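Many introductory courses stop at the sequence. We go one step further.
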Amino acid sequence: MLYKIFLGQSFLDPVLYNCTGTEIYADRHLVLGVLYFSMGFIAQILYLLVLKTFWFHEPFWEHACYRIMFFLENNCIGFCGFLSFHYTNIPGIPDMLSLIICAEFAGIWSILGLHPCYNMKFAVFFGCLVFGTWHMSCFYVLILTFNRSCELLAPKFGRLLFSGKPLSIILCLPIFYFIYFAFFTKPLIYDVTESTFLLNPLTKATMAFDPAVYTVYGFIFNNFFCMFFIGVNYFVVCAYLLYHSCSTSIRTVSKIYRQVTVQCMIVCTCHFIGCFLYIYMQYRQLPNVFHVIAQLAWIGNHGLPPLVYLIFNTSIRSKISFCHLQVNRMVASSHTDQKSGGIVKTQKRITTVM
């Protein structure tokens, strides 16, 4: 829809987003609003810590899986990735934008009880952007899942595909995914009454519309393909790890690999849950609790990765400093040479505490 901006047209369809006769205020959901907002805000603080660690510590860049997980958080690497992979990125802006909309924006509107018709242009515009970032993050999850399978089952092929320029090109592909879904499809719009994002804004004029009117076939294909691809890949990975764990060749599967795979599986689980529920509830009436679960899964999709890294990865956790203040303690001792009447030496010891 947003492509119309470049044509000098209004991107707001007067029929699909007709607010005639619709009240701009709805029932408030204070608890859910505070929960959504808090999850988004806390996740963004954790992002800053983890992204800083990925950014400034070279060892993490040596592993393709960490590079992919970094761009899962930092979904906009720009076309400069074709030229240079190192330090040319804008840390966390797209994923933080997603959290601002799907967590903090949703939380504020739930607290205030505002229907999308309060400002439909605002809701549609940012709904398009967050729709694009959702699909872009799904693409990165698929890349991450495939990377885990390749490194386990076909390590030579994995090293060839997930290193150097091939990896840079692969990490740029989701940008086109974002452009398509953000500019050329209908958006997801937050509905306070349902406490989740829906394709139909549920105004008085559109409430009775056939769901097919708002169908985005790319959305359906993306979500079902994500569920299938993630399920198949991690079934193969788990079967492989289980087989070797029960055999004498357990040493062939390193502890580091198992640790990183667990992190990736947890990160991908939110995608799996969110993909299923967000498709199903567009076309079938579900109890409101499932709408909340879907919304929490979406927030977890963008906000869970840094928490997972901090809990399960001691390497990342050991590199994080919560502040840059350095406390210096000086212990000085002076010895006076009474025979010469002068100061022999002053020793200072400086201890730096991070």
